[in-house]
Structure formats: structure tokens, C-alpha cells
Amino acid sequence: MNEAKIAAVTGANKGIGFEIASQLAALGVRVIATARDEARGKKALDALTAEGGSVIFHQLDVTEPESIERFRKFVEKEFRRLDILVNNAGVFLDKGVSGLEVGLDAMRGSMEANVYGPLALCQAFIPLMRKNGYGRVVNVSSHLGQLASMGASGLAYRVSKAAVNAVTRVLAAEVEGENILVNTMHPGWINTDMGGPKAPGTAAEGADTAVWLATLPDGGPSGGFFKDREPMNW
Ligand code: NAP
């Protein structure tokens, strides 16, 4: 019998993360939807549960080591494995701000949420994936982190997304051949609180490539950067 896969999604209380959780649940994956704020997370859980599927909630602030450790212990105790980790939570603290003016607080805040958090979660869960001989890690990045098309403004966000792409490459190389596939992706310009109302894409469209990467078959790509299920330039 094929047991249902277990997935953790960060920042699942709204936007693209909510949709990733919803689409994974619709595929029969048991989803642990996480959010830093308990009340916002539980409200999202009610909406996800109403859609059907197996979803539970756990608090997780990706910038808090104690919160990550509590979450790791919970997963280990309750499930003894984690098959899928989607590092979706993110912040864009310097939208429209010149790189000549961006403050160190925005630099640090962007690195904490967009790079160190995802890295810490990989360090918490890849050992468990290794034990189980199965893992899919998806880092939700951005084309703004693409070195090939790097442009002006949003330096803190751009640097954090370029860095999480590098984290993806290194970790993918370290687990090569262990059936743990580590990839990064750009969701498109998506109508969420972060993307804003003028964005053309829906959250469901933004979630699609992440869900595809989260459910790759054995032997699928690893260490890649994707958009619309296709590789993109670094
Ligand atoms: P969003 O609607 O603003 O959602 C961001 C999510 O991240 C929220 O759930 C937020 O929680 C959570 N979050 C932020 N800091 C956190 C922390 N320290 N711990 C746990 N959760 C935290 O944005 P989105 O558009 O869905 O973005 C999702 C991902 O897609 C991000 O990584 C973003 O960089 C990326 N992305 C988005 C676009 C776009 O056009 N929208 C384009 C490229 C990439 P709260 O509700 O508590 O704030």
C-alpha cells in the first residue's frame, strides 16, 4: 500500500503558500500548514479543511530557531518522517528602495526570513528525509534573484533570493543520489499581498510549479531553478 506523503508548507496562511497547501491536500498529501501567527494559521486551516483533504496546523516562525526546533520535534514525534518541505514563507522589505539607501535592518530581515529560515528548515528535516530515503524540497524564490537579469532596486530581496538559489544548489549537490530532490522556483508575478493587485497571476497559478516540484517522481530533476515547470536561467 502506498502511504500518503507528508508535507510541511511555510507561510501557508495566505497567498501562494495557502494555495500550495490546498493543491497538495487535493492530491492526497497530508499537509502540515504552518504560519508564524497562530490565529491567522488556524483561520487558514478552517478554510483548507472546508475544501477537504488532510490538513493540520502547526505554528512556525521561520526566523525563530526555537520555533523551528519545536516544529521539528513535533513532526518527528507525530510522523517520524517528512517527505516534502516547501519553503514558501518570505518577505519583501525593500520594494522600490534603491540599493544605495537600503538599511541593514531590511538586509538582515530579508536574509533571516528568505535564506536562513529555509536553510535551518533544510538542516532540520533533510536528516529525517535521508533516514527515509525520500525527500522533496522546494524553495520559493523569485526571478528578482536571477543574476542573469539583475536590475535596480529591491537589493535586500534580490540578494536574499539569489542566496536561497545558491543554498538550493549546494544542498542538492550534498544529497545527490539519495532520492532527495532540492529545487528552487519562481512563481510568476502573482496577485497576493506581496505581489499587489496589479499582478496578472492567481495564487493558484503561482502554486503550480511548486506543487509539481514537491511531487516529482524518483529520478526527477534536482538543483534546478524553474518557472512554469520549465528550467530558467540563474
Ligand atoms: P504573501 O501573501 O505576502 O505571503 C507571505 C507569507 O510568508 C505569509 O504567510 C507570511 O505570514 C509568511 N511569512 C513571512 N515571514 C514569515 C516568518 N518569519 N515565518 C513564517 N512565515 C512568514 O506573499 P506571497 O506572494 O504569497 O509570497 C510567497 C512566496 O513567493 C515568497 O517567498 C515570495 O518571495 C515569493 N514570490 C512571490 C511573488 C509574487 O508576485 N507574489 C513573486 C516571486 C516570488 P504573515 O501572514 O504572518 O505575514
Q: Outline, from the CA principal axes? A: globular
Largest sheet data: 8 strands, mixed
Alpha-carbon distance between the termini? 40 Å
Mean pLDDT value: 97
Helix segment tally: 6
Evaluate the radius of gyration: 16 Å
H/E element sequence? EHEHEHEHEHEHEE
Q: List the bound ligands.
A: NADP nicotinamide-adenine-dinucleotide phosphate
Strand order of the largest sheet: 3-2-1-4-5-6-7-8
Stretches where pLDDT is under 50 for at least 5 consecutive residues are none
SS elements, strand count: 8
How much beta, percentage-wise?
15-25%
What do you see in this structure?
This protein is of the alpha/beta class and 234 residues long. 43% of the residues lie in helices and 15% in strands. The chain has 6 helices and 8 strands. α1 (15-26) packs across α6 and α4 runs parallel beside α5. The termini are far apart. NADP nicotinamide-adenine-dinucleotide phosphate binds at residues 10-11, 13-17, 35-37, 40, 60-63, 88-91, 113, 140, 142, 186-187, 189-190, 192-195, 199.
Features:
234 residues, binds NADP nicotinamide-adenine-dinucleotide phosphate, alpha/beta, 8-stranded mixed beta sheet
Write the layout of secondary structure elements.
Elements: E1 6-9, H1 15-26, E2 30-35, H2 38-50, E3 55-59, H3 65-78, E4 84-87, H4 104-132, E5 135-140, H5 155-174, E6 180-185, H6 203-214, E7 225-227, E8 230-231
This protein binds NADP nicotinamide-adenine-dinucleotide phosphate.
